[in-house]
Amino acid sequence: xxxxxxxxxxxxxxxxxxxxxxxxxxxxxxxxxxxxxxxxxxxxxxxxxxxxxxxxxxxxxxxxxxxxxxxxxxxxxxxxxxxxxxxxxxxxxxxxxxxxxxxxxxxxxxxxxxxxxxxxxxxxxxxxxxxxxxxxxxxxxxxxxxxxxxxxxxxxxxxxxxxxxxxxxxxxxxxxxxxxxxxxxxxxxxxxxxxxxxxxxxxxxxxxxxxxxxxxxxxxxxxxxxxxxxxxxxxxxxxxxxxxxxxxxxxx
Length: 252
What we know:
The protein is of the alpha/beta class. The protein has one domain: Spore Coat Polysaccharide Biosynthesis Protein SpsA, Chain A. It has helices at 32-42, 63-73, 87-96, 113-125, 141-158, 174-180, 189-199, 223-241; strands at 10-11, 14-15, 18-25, 49-57, 77-82, 102-105, 130-135, 170-173, 204-209. The chain has a seven-stranded mixed sheet with strand order 5-4-3-6-8-7-9, with helices on both faces. Helix 1 (32-42) crosses helix 4. It starts with 9 loop residues before the first strand and ends in an 11-residue tail after the last helix. The relative contact order is 0.15.
């Protein structure tokens, strides 16, 4: 069965389902090609069609050219480019261009092909739920402490049950996407995703993922960006308490 992202392909009983996978790409020319090839292999037996949307954002290397080459090589790959940077912005652009009735976004530097397949399978098995990864461990003690502080803050401020807000993949139906109306352009989009799921009484299924090593590139998380996330989470909580909605246009 072909995995071409053709929404007109049919199975008995109606149109064939398709999952759109958004991969934000920031200075990842050195490994994004190998990653996409491995993801393609992992999804080869998926009953649903699939597409990858590579969102190159503020790249200073050859990521744009590499992604365009991938799009010419794989019929399942499309590209979107923006001169602006930002994890949330790239996620939103990819989702806005997605054709699938099941949607996914993930950090390609941390998500193994097996994990991507596992969470997509879980989403199709639980179509009414939002599915997200839950990293069981971290690669360093410093990142463990930073993650613990941020997730504790989010649990206290927003009464969330999760201990890994930022973990990906995140997989959800188009109906859930339309309901959430994600707005954040930066790293806070994952917190926004979870808070809005809780606001709309959506069930979130967390699937354990065990890989801890980056598969390529360098993390953009540092003390400064971590502090912005801590402060940003507080601002979002404060604005919601002031009656400005769960999320204001501000995204530090």
